[in-house]
Automatic annotation (TrEMBL), chains A, B:
Transmembrane domains' residue ranges: none
Similarity field: Belongs to the class IV-like SAM-binding methyltransferase superfamily. RNA methyltransferase TrmH family.
Organism expressing this protein natively: Novosphingobium mangrovi
Catalytic activities: uridine(32) in tRNA + S-adenosyl-L-methionine = 2'-O-methyluridine(32) in tRNA + S-adenosyl-L-homocysteine + H(+); cytidine(32) in tRNA + S-adenosyl-L-methionine = 2'-O-methylcytidine(32) in tRNA + S-adenosyl-L-homocysteine + H(+)
Domain tRNA/rRNA methyltransferase SpoU type residue range list: 7-154
Subunit structure of this chain's protein: Homodimer.
Function, in words: Catalyzes the formation of 2'O-methylated cytidine (Cm32) or 2'O-methylated uridine (Um32) at position 32 in tRNA.
Gene name for this UniProt entry: trmJ
E.C. number: 2.1.1.200
SUPFAM superfamilies: alpha/beta knot
The protein's name: tRNA (cytidine/uridine-2'-O-)-methyltransferase TrmJ
Location in or out of the cell: Cytoplasm
Example GO BP: methylation
Keyword terms: Cytoplasm, Methyltransferase, S-adenosyl-L-methionine, Transferase, tRNA processing
Length: 249, 249
């Protein structure tokens, strides 16, 4: 049995555009169930569709409720999203912790988001089992609604068991352990050196293939992440080749 | 010595509004260094400021370059963000893997983002050491520029060593292990039951304190995450109190 995906609850959202953006954010990470509590301008809202950028199935399936209590009545794990606060009386979790809990907990879960300007009221937070706060720059905390939604949806998606396997399966880059990869300008110097030499040898011929050949070379030389010493060694090799050619030419 | 934060490079961005939104996304997670490669409408762009919602320091410090190679010339670890692709010739990493690598690697790092509509060109990707792809719903991949930036910035911030400690220090909720927390409607029933009884006893008096008292009660009853059996037991307790009162009344 697969778990039920969490619902996204928007409490008294103001702009239809933001509802649409939230729908788009959700669907990017596979969340499809949106619930609206007393949207200011009613529902449906003609501004939502264009902002959803194709996430129409989320908007079409959105349910409207009068109160948050009704909207989450079938949910066992309700997370109220707020900015960082003092003196809260409930556990405070990060999006990552919430995602882990939601995947581990039986029962339906809900992420609850407040109105754009004001956020959730104390009465709304009182309905939740826990508070979800995104750890953010304390000197500039300015997440909009869709951004808060996308961070929660992204973390939830990351912790879907099948996705976790998929991500782990991605090829990992090897990091140079003793020396960092050389800065890009050293690499550019090396690539330029190669190209100069190869041009002299008519490597980039016929002309119709030249761009593709340069790209192949660039990809090949960028891949290893050579460090400063390795780049220097290679430059030395190229200089040697270059100089050896001149006496003959 | 603290590590240098990565730079965010926007290649040929089209709309000033999106540059502003990217700046806002960055600063939320403590990233301040933005570099622009050939912005379509020049720089500065009057549409950027309003969209930055206060992240002016990022825009004011933004540097402009003609080519991506110049923009990342001092960077040892360059990540090119792209949508999921087949046949790539470089390591592909998630935002989380990139964040871990950036914190572990010596040298400056850069996250590179392409133009809004088209994304990075093959020639841009060729400059990078690795490709960064957000694992996304394959049936609806529709991240906008600022959203891609915020997910990378968020993951980078999560893995700042001091933040990692800070998050781990948040109080963790206790999850009922054997039975899930009761659905919200059962909890509402319990809270309503309490309130009905307490109203009869003039608990919510004086009236000026009633709202605050109800809130205190609601917070107190919401906190434990009681399961279905626990809620039923409590309802039984309340019913007993209620019935015992009636014969006397």
């Amino acid at each position: 049995m697969s778990e039920q995906a969490p619902v996204i609850v928007l409490v008294r959202p103001q702009l239809g555009e933001n509802i649409g953006k939230a729908a788009r954010a959700m669907l990017n990470f596979g969340l499809t169930e949106m619930r609206l509590v007393s949207p200011r301008d009613g529902w449906p809202n003609p501004s939502a569709g264009p902002a959803a950028a194709g996430a129409d199935e989320v908007l079409e399936g959105a349910q409207v409720f009068e109160t948050l209590a009704e909207a989450v009545s079938d949910c066992a794990n309700v997370y109220a999203t707020t900015v960082r606060k003092r003196g809260v009386t409930k556990p405070v979790v990060t999006p990552e912790q919430a995602a882990r809990e939601i995947h581990a907990a039986p029962g339906r879960s809900a992420y609850v988001f407040g109105p754009e300007r004001s956020g959730l009221e104390t009465e709304d937070v009182a309905l939740a089992r826990a508070i979800l706060t995104v750890p953010i720059n304390p000197e500039f905390a300015s997440l909009n609604l869709a951004q808060a939604v996308i961070l929660c949806a992204y973390e939830w998606s990351k912790h879907v068991p099948s996705n976790a396997e998929g991500n782990a399966g991605l090829e990992q880059p090897t990091l140079e352990e003793l020396l960092p990869p050389a800065p890009q300008e050293e690499l550019e110097g090396l690539i330029g050196h190669f190209e100069r030499l190869l041009e002299d040898k008519n490597y980039f011929w016929p002309k119709t293939r030249a761009a593709a050949n340069r790209l192949t070379l660039r990809n090949l030389l960028t891949k290893p992440g050579w460090n400063h010493l390795e780049v220097r060694t290679l430059r030395g090799v190229l200089s040697t080749l270059e100089n050896a050619r001149r006496p003959r030419g």
